[in-house]
């Protein structure tokens, strides 16, 4: 992914100029911290708290929006397969394991920039929808803060050696297309989720379709892992909301900083909720690791595992050879590939289980213990 070429050389020179001029330990810490704050793991931790704070509509819309952004951005990355700036000569700062994994992806567009534009822009739209924040000065301050954040994130990605100016502009442009589109359709999506018919089955089919429609990059990258995780999160949220909207997620639920939901109560929710969803994630992963290989073998689908199941990390079981003509395999186009990576399904189900517990199991526990 670092092979030399005209585009790669041009991008590397742009980044190199910035890095050589502005390297400083304080800037390393600042931009690394900002990158963590707008990273996928941060959103994964932040969104459950948003649900439990009483802002259910905002939380589910931001969850679906980041899943959409993640799919679009990573699909473009793996379709274009444009390399990141070469390191060396560019100095790349990877302060966390997440950043090390990000460095293995392709470069165009910058997902951090894209996600920041869409999520901060949507959050601003949500805040300004309240009457008390409709005056011109509040709008100006809000837009200025969003622009500042987006600018710092874009500059930071260049400074850290993770992206070039081309990557950042690409992320910005795609974000500016997605954001107004989402603001246009989000009300319709929300109405469908909370009151539509056959929503769970529709979303299951959509999730399955998105998994198999994902493009194949020139070289394997972690991008599909991020998409699979948020695809599972979106499905778990939708399935849980469908079942519990009128109990736990309607617009009249108590919100944080009100007498009905004090800070102390919210801390209690965090102390109970976070360990619970982590436990559900572990259980979902263990269950999927046991069930999916059995189901795959029963249906004649050749499988392998790139990490979760050590005894399947070869080229697939020998029995695959005698199952190549299975009906299910032909139906889902597995005949075009030797084996299917069962880790994709395991990852999907563990994050779907985690998300379901955020909006269904954990709120049920809250009601049982009067939180």
Automatic annotation (TrEMBL):
Family: Belongs to the type 2 lipid phosphate phosphatase family.
Main localization (coarse): endoplasmic reticulum
Gene3D superfamilies found in the cross-reference section: Phosphatidic acid phosphatase type 2/haloperoxidase
Residues of the Phosphatidic acid phosphatase type 2/haloperoxidase domain: 59-183
Xref: PANTHER family: DIHYDROSPHINGOSINE 1-PHOSPHATE PHOSPHATASE LCB3-RELATED, SPHINGOSINE-1-PHOSPHATE PHOSPHOHYDROLASE
Topology versus the membrane: Multi-pass membrane protein
Matching InterPro entries: PAP2/HPO (IPR000326), PAP2/HPO_sf (IPR036938)
Subcellular localization(s) per the UniProt record: Endoplasmic reticulum membrane
Keywords, alphabetical: Endoplasmic reticulum, Hydrolase, Membrane, Transmembrane, Transmembrane helix
Transmembrane segments: 29-52, 140-159, 165-185, 192-214, 261-280
Protein name, as recorded: Phosphatidic acid phosphatase type 2/haloperoxidase domain-containing protein
Source organism of this protein record: Juglans regia (English walnut)
GO MF: hydrolase activity
One GO CC term on file: endoplasmic reticulum membrane
């Amino acid at each position: 992914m670092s092979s030399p070429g005209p585009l790669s050389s041009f991008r590397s020179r742009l980044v190199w100029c910035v890095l050589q001029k502005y390297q400083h330990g304080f800037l390393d810490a600042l931009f690394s911290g900002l990158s963590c704050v707008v990273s996928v793991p941060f959103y994964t931790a932040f969104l459950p708290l948003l649900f439990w704070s009483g802002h259910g509509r905002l939380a589910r819309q931001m969850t679906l929006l980041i899943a959409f952004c993640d799919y679009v951005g990573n699909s473009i990355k793996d379709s274009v397969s444009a390399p990141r700036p070469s390191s060396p000569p560019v100095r790349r700062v990877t302060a966390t394991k997440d950043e090390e994994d990000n460095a293995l992806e392709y470069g165009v567009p910058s997902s951090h920039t894209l996600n920041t534009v869409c999520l901060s822009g949507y959050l601003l739209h949500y805040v300004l929808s309240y009457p008390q924040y409709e005056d011109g000065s509040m709008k100006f301050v809000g837009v200025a803060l969003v622009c500042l954040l987006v600018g710092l994130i874009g500059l930071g990605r260049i400074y850290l050696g993770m992206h070039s100016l081309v990557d950042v502009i690409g992320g910005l442009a795609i974000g500016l297309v997605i954001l107004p589109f989402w603001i246009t359709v989000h009300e319709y999506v929300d109405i469908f989720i909370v009151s539509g018919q056959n929503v769970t089955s529709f979303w299951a089919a959509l999730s399955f379709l998105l998994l198999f429609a994902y493009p194949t990059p020139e070289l394997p990258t972690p991008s599909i892992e991020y998409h699979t995780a948020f695809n599972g999160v979106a499905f778990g949220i939708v399935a849980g909301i469908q079942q519990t909207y009128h109990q736990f997620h309607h617009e009249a639920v108590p919100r944080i900083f009100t007498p009905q939901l004090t800070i102390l109560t919210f801390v209690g929710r965090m102390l109970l909720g976070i360990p619970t969803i982590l436990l559900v994630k572990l259980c979902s992963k263990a269950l999927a690791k046991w069930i999916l290989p059995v189901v795959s073998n029963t249906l004649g689908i050749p499988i392998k595992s790139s990490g979760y199941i050590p005894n399947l990390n070869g080229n697939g079981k020998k029995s695959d050879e005698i199952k190549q003509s299975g009906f299910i395999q032909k139906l889902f186009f597995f005949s075009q590939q030797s084996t299917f990576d069962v880790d994709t399904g395991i990852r999907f189900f563990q994050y779907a289980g985690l998300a379901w517990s955020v909006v269904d199991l954990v709120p049920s526990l809250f009601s049982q213990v009067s939180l």
